[in-house]
Amino acid sequence: MAGVDDAAGAEQETGRARRVRVGRPPLTERRKETARLDIARAAVELFAERGVEGVSASDIAESVSISTRTLWRYFPSKEECVAPLLALGVQRLAKQLREWPTDKPLLEALQRGDWLEAEGPDTARLVLDLMRLTRTEPGLQTVWMRQTFAAQPAVAEVLAGRAGRERPAMEDNVQAGMLLAAIHVAVRDFAWRQPGEADGGSTLADALRSALAVAVRGLPL
Question: Which domains does the chain have, with CATH numbers?
């Protein structure tokens, strides 16, 4: 885990070491994010194998060759270690919505679903493994909910901009919350389904499209 090693080493440098390394660029946010993501992937692998209770913070730290103390600098709890992996999807979604052409409906961007697998099949597999774990691990489910709705302000800003508003109104905030809730339910139901169940479609993209169709129709009031 080179990214984690580099990040941890840079953060633990003493003042003397920093003086010796004058002229070398400081640790970037990008490197920190890479380190956090490496830890998240390792944590999910361990949780899937042993369950959350069967994994300690030191187990996670050892798997990425850092100290437990360094791990706590990145995350306040072992459950929080998965947060970067959970955040990937909604971050990609928010980015795609911001960059989507204004002459095309946003629904097309949402229904494409390619943002779900932007990090590659291995990451997509880990995310689904993590989603399955949330069914029986309330600590992970709490982290997932928080990460999902952390994108609400960014999505609301996109909706406001397309409506010609400088800042999100309540309408934009409600619509952003509805979209994220629909996505959350689609991913959850797909990950939690039993063998043979096909409610919402046979693939995650199908489940997403079905959930968004319900959100677009609105409440039956």
Answer: 2-75 (1.10.10.60), 82-217 (1.10.357.10)
